[in-house]
Specification:
single chain, alpha+beta, Thrombin, subunit H, six-stranded antiparallel barrel, Cell/Rod_MreC_2, MreC_beta-barrel_core, Cell/Rod_1
């Protein structure tokens, strides 16, 4: 109950409201069905006025939809990136392995091409371990007593003399490199036949040629090969190249530095040499 201009006015009931709105709805539908221009104009105005509100209402749902789509896309991109990174790592590993295999093939090919030494039979041996220090320069090979390896046996690679066997076990052997401080290789100069001895220094990259008088004909670049004296190494095989020659007026001998010609810093395989006249010698080609 309310008042209007002093009159008591009774509020309509809910049923009356329902009937009123129903009648209004029916009237609007009838007018729209008869293509009433005014109704269409009113409806268009209402739709245009309500369009921003409709867009604003739909905006949160559109944002949520876009966010979900972006999250799914981001997840797929992360997975694809992880897969590509893993593949790149695998390819890098394979490339490194392939490069190592190519290097080993070249090394083995050079070894086999250089294995024809008159009076000797050559056998391939795999390097199991490298012991390098200032007082000991040794290799461990996978050939031993069962393969007829013997103490004092010469070991070479495709470029020069590596050393000699100093210890033999049943299936392995130990090689003293020419750079070992206890090693001495009788040599001769290719240029003029000068005889000398190449001694190890404890460094894989350097040897020395002592006891040459100041009048000796020796110069940087001279190549010394094994002379064959002592019967351990085959004659004429490369040993060292002279890098520096200095003299001291107060000393009777020259200071001669040289580098080994064998590739001592990279060995996967080497060649063992057996004199052909030796009883029980054989050519082993596994490693």
């Amino acid at each position: 109950m309310g008042t209007f201009l002093g009159w008591s006015v009774k509020r309509p009931s809910n049923l009356a409201k329902l009937i009123l709105f129903a009648c209004a709805s029916v009237a609007l539908m009838v007018m729209d069905a008869h293509h009433n221009r005014d109704v269409r104009a009113v409806r268009g105005t209402i739709l245009r006025a309500g369009h921003p509100l409709q867009e604003l209402t739909a905006l949160p749902f559109a944002l949520i939809h876009d966010a979900r789509r972006d999250l799914r896309l981001n997840s797929r991109l992360r997975q694809e990136n992880a897969r590509l990174r893993a593949r790149a790592r695998r390819l890098e590993i394979e490339a490194s392995r392939l490069a190592a295999l190519r290097l080993e093939v070249r090394h083995l090919t050079a070894l086999l091409h250089g294995s024809a030494i008159p009076g000797y039979r050559a056998g391939l041996a795999r390097v199991l371990d490298v012991g390098s220090g200032p007082f000991k320069q040794h290799l461990t090979l996978d050939e031993g007593r069962n393969d007829h390896v013997f103490i004092g046996q010469a070991v070479i690679d495709a470029h020069g003399i590596v050393g000699q066997v100093v210890s033999v076990n049943r299936d392995t052997s130990e090689v003293m490199l020419i750079t070992d401080p206890d090693s001495g290789v009788p040599v001769i100069s290719e240029r003029n036949g000068l005889r000398a001895i190449v001694f190890g220094t404890g460094s894989l990259h350097r040897v020395k040629i002592p006891y040459l008088t100041v009048t000796a004909d020796i110069r940087p670049g001279d190549v010394f090969v094994s002379s064959g004296l002592g019967g351990i190494y085959p004659p004429g095989y490369p040993v060292a190249r002279v890098t520096k020659v200095t003299s001291n007026p107060n000393l009777a001998f020259l200071n001669v530095r040289a580098v080994p010609l064998a590739h001592l810093t990279y060995h996967t395989h080497v060649l063992l040499l057996w004199p052909r006249a030796q009883t029980g010698a054989r050519d082993t080609h596994h490693g």
